[in-house]
Please model this.
Amino acid sequence: MSENAQDGDSLMPPEERLADENVPTDSTPRVLRMIDLKLSYTVQDRSDTVHTYLHSERFEAVQPMRFFRRWYQWSGTGQEHEPAALSQSDDGLYAHRVHGPLIREGAERVYLVYLGRELSRGERDLVTTQQKFIDEQGTFQPYLRHHMRAPLEKLELEVILPRELASNVRTEQIDLVSGRSLSAAVPLQDMGDLEGLCHYSYRVKTPRVGVRYGIKWLR
Model:
């Protein structure tokens, strides 16, 4: 999946598009300020077919807003289930919900999440969505990546794999302009907290704008 179509990273797992475009359709990137972001990708079966993607982002409204917009690309071929909102407002009074169907535009996908009310300037919220994918033709490419286009306090990438599929899991940091690696790939160790599965986490405090952070593994 790719955050940005012009980067050419079209064969990836689900990931975020431009961070500063997670905004209402009728607004500018200044509508919200991202605070922290967690992306979690799970391969559920040994045949590497059934996948689940979880996106969780906390943000602050810079202008009044009612909708949160998401883009993604997925490299698999098969079934893409409709996303579901799992979150609600911090005070528990307003449930989030996906507004309308998943929109398909070539390789890109976009959907809106209704926040349940209008956020005022300076108000914060956390939106969590989940989506299921079935890669029937085996075209999925083993990456989870986020392109840093706007400041962020904390980024976490998480990958959960069956033990049989967990091979050479490592981090990456790529400069978005030059395309060169900014650091050597660091092997990730299984956290060992999930029975029958391997759990990997890559956490970055104050990630750098202009860098692509990712986890990749072998299929």
In short: The domain at 5-216 is CATH 2.60.40 (Immunoglobulin-like). The CA atoms of residues 43 and 161 lie 5 Å apart. The chain has a mean pLDDT of 85.
